[in-house]
């Protein structure tokens, strides 16, 4: 008998006797048949009993199911509103699963749910970060918005063995290890007592670089890409449209030169820094462009900051518009632009195609006014949007040389409601006539430029300020009337931290060398600002009472065996607890197995300068996590430059594992304690870092000797 359809379900279920009789008859017939068989043969008795029991079980299940279904349908018939609600919910789920936007909504809700669970969760110790499980949260991540692409995950990677040095060892555990070593070697040990008694006078001989050394693997992509710019088009645009810079971009000796020669000899492009904007789905990069009248690259007349936008695959986006975030946005920007086109007479002629005469007249009319209309349109839109590529609108006194912004670096400022790039650079201040550090907010229309000042009478800025490394506190409060606070690593060795307002630029020194009473052994000018410092990926929980940042400072040492000056990326781990800042790890130098472009750009030899500079951490996200053992698949996009002449982008994999495994492999103190021992502890680590960097410089120099003069 065929089962009734759902439309007749209620009437059908009202006749209970009919149901029982009709549905059970097949099983009863089987049962009778089995009984007849059993009477004819005793050997099949057990088989017959088994069939009887199965039939009875089937009957029981079916009766229970039908009875439950009947009650539910009766309940829905008595409660039509509930029936309607359940049907609507079911329909919403079906639409959400099948429709792309619905899928994104479910992903967003799931991600926010797990973000609430893991985002608010704290772990007690840094080592506990190795044991967290983030797989549930990753399942709901919307990968369409992520900078991680299929290409990034499936390209070739090359292993790098990074040697770093820690500076916050647990000396008690180190004592035990040395005692054990003494016992193994001598049968008795006095290492622990010696360490305690001679700590102050003999720390550097008791704690060797091998005790502080931490070695592990990261990977870098075989792929890296040079990010280009069209300087010829830039020059044409500035000379034609920029009233401020246009008049500064020519000299008498260029009169008979070709445009190509002018670009090759008088225009230079330095390293670029980029960040990923999730909401805009693009990378934005800021580079220094130099115009020099005498052809000497470190003697510019003026400098400017060039802004470019790139898609996920690092193809440049020409005409990318991003609305200023301090203006009231329109709900439908495309519709408003369409209305503006119509107002300026830039409407489409497609609706006139049926009438050939009217259509051709419309096209001719549009062509005639197109240039003027486009110019007016761009002028109007520039009040509401920044359009990439462009040059940042930074004004300064152009009298003389070495004018304008230099060494731009970028950091992403992110709140619950918005994200924006913040460009940090140095420039000669027209008022003080000294080089000062500034910030520029390119996605703000109102007062985007801020100069940082230090009004404290007890501490003054130097004549030339540069190489500050920016970072944001994760606990910074938000206000509709404030742009917030930014922090800078003002000096690495000794470590000093600035806290500055983004509203008026007023700064205060919140952590100084005198806080730890550091000796001259802790002074090293070869560690300078490179990239910004960023927190660990956001899906990781916080460590109770601590903040952790990762960055790439720039190693700058002289006469070490490779030219006059040797620049390389370093890796640094910065930790803060109760206002005390500490560099917990320093990797002396990283070169990604590259033969670095020489300063004269004619080879890879060590010449005047050998420069590989870290510029910015563009993005850092986790793609997956394995269970046994727990390891993260994390990807960091880094921009760097060679010889101050090009900008490259490269992908690093495994930075997060490198950092977290340090806490498993090295016996680290959970907190850095300010004491009389601080100067000795930090100083010993610094000696190891400097020693290693000089050795690596010499090795590179021996492998890349400077060509002999003819």
TrEMBL record:
Residues 21-30 have a biased composition (Polar residues). One of its GO terms (cellular component) is membrane. One of its GO terms (biological process) is cell wall organization. Residues 8-17 have a biased composition (Acidic residues). InterPro entries: BMT1. Coiled coil: none annotated. Residues 1-48 are annotated as: Disordered. GO terms for molecular function: mannosyltransferase activity. It is a single-pass type II membrane protein. The keyword Protease does not apply. Keywords: Cell wall biogenesis/degradation, Glycosyltransferase, Membrane, Signal-anchor, Transferase, Transmembrane, Transmembrane helix. Pfam families: BMT. Residues 31-48 have a biased composition (Low complexity). The chain crosses the membrane at residues 80-98. It is found in: Membrane. The keyword Lipid metabolism does not apply. Belongs to the BMT family. This is Glycosyltransferase family 91 protein. It comes from Naumovozyma dairenensis (strain ATCC 10597 / BCRC 20456 / CBS 421 / NBRC 0211 / NRRL Y-12639) (Saccharomyces dairenensis).
């Amino acid at each position: 008998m065929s089962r009734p359809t759902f439309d007749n379900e209620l009437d059908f279920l009202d006749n209970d006797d009919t149901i029982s009789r009709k549905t059970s008859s097949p099983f009863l017939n089987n049962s009778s048949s089995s009984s007849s068989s059993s009477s004819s043969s005793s050997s099949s008795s057990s088989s017959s009993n088994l069939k009887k029991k199965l039939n009875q079980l089937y009957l029981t299940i079916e009766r229970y199911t039908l009875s439950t279904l009947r009650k539910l349908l009766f309940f829905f018939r008595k409660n039509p509103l509930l029936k309607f609600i359940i049907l609507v919910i079911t329909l919403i789920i079906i639409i959400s699963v099948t429709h792309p936007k619905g899928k994104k909504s479910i992903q967003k809700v799931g991600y926010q749910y797990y973000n609430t669970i893991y985002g608010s969760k704290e772990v007690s110790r840094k080592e506990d970060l190795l044991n967290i499980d983030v797989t549930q949260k990753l399942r709901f991540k919307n990968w369409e918005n992520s900078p991680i692409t299929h290409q990034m995950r499936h390209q070739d990677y090359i292993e790098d063995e990074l040697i770093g040095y820690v500076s916050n060892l647990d000396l008690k555990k180190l004592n035990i290890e040395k005692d054990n070593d003494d016992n193994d070697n001598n049968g008795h040990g006095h290492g622990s007592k010696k360490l305690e008694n001679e700590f102050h006078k003999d720390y550097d001989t008791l704690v060797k670089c091998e005790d502080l050394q931490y070695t592990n693997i990261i990977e870098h992509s075989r792929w890296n890409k040079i990010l280009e710019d069209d300087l010829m088009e830039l020059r044409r645009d500035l000379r034609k449209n920029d009233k401020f810079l246009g008049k500064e971009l020519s000299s008498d000796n260029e009169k008979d030169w070709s445009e190509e020669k002018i670009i090759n000899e008088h225009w230079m492009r330095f390293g670029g820094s980029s960040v990923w904007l999730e909401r805009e789905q693009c990378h934005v990069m800021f580079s220094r462009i130099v115009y020099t009248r005498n052809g000497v690259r470190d003697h510019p007349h003026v400098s400017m900051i060039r802004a470019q936008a790139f898609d996920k695959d690092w193809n440049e986006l020409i005409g990318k518009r991003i609305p200023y975030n301090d203006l009231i946005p329109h709900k439908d920007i495309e519709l408003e632009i369409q209305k503006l086109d119509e107002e300026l007479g830039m409407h489409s002629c497609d609706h006139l195609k049926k009438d050939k005469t009217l259509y051709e007249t419309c096209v001719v009319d549009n062509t005639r006014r197109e240039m003027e209309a486009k110019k007016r349109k761009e002028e109007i839109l520039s009040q509401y949007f920044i359009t990439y590529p462009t040059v940042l609108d930074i004004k300064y006194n152009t009298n003389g040389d070495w004018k304008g912004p230099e060494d731009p670096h970028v950091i992403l400022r992110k709140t619950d409601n918005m994200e924006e790039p913040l460009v940090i650079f140095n420039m000669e201040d027209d008022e003080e006539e000294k080089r000062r550090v500034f910030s520029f907010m390119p996605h703000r229309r109102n007062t985007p430029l801020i100069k940082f000042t230090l009004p404290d009478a007890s501490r003054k800025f130097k004549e030339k300020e540069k190489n500050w490394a920016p970072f944001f506190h994760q606990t910074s409060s938000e206000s509709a009337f404030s742009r917030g606070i930014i922090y800078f690593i003002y000096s690495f060795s000794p470590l000093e931290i600035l806290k500055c307002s983004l509203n008026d630029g007023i700064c205060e020194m919140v952590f100084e060398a005198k806080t730890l009473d550091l000796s001259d052994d802790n002074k090293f000018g070869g560690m300078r600002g490179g990239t910004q410092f960023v927190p660990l990926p956001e899906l990781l929980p916080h460590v109770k009472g601590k903040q952790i940042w990762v960055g790439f400072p720039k190693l700058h040492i002289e006469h070490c065996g490779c030219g006059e000056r040797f620049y390389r990326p370093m890796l640094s781990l910065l930790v803060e607890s109760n206002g005390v800042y500490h560099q917990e790890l320093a990797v002396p130098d990283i070169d990604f197995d590259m033969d670095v472009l020489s300063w004269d750009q004619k080879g890879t030899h060590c010449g005047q300068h050998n420069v590989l500079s870290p510029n910015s951490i563009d993005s850092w996200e986790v793609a997956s996590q394995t269970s046994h053992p727990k390891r993260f698949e994390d990807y960091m996009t880094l921009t760097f430059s060679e010889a101050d002449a090009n900008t490259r982008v490269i992908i690093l994999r495994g930075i997060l594992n490198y950092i977290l495994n340090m806490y498993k492999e090295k016996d680290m103190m959970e907190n850095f304690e300010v004491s009389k021992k601080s100067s000795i502890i930090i100083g010993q680590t610094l000696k190891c870092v400097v020693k290693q960097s000089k050795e690596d410089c010499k090795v590179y120099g021996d492998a890349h000797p400077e060509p002999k003069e003819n």
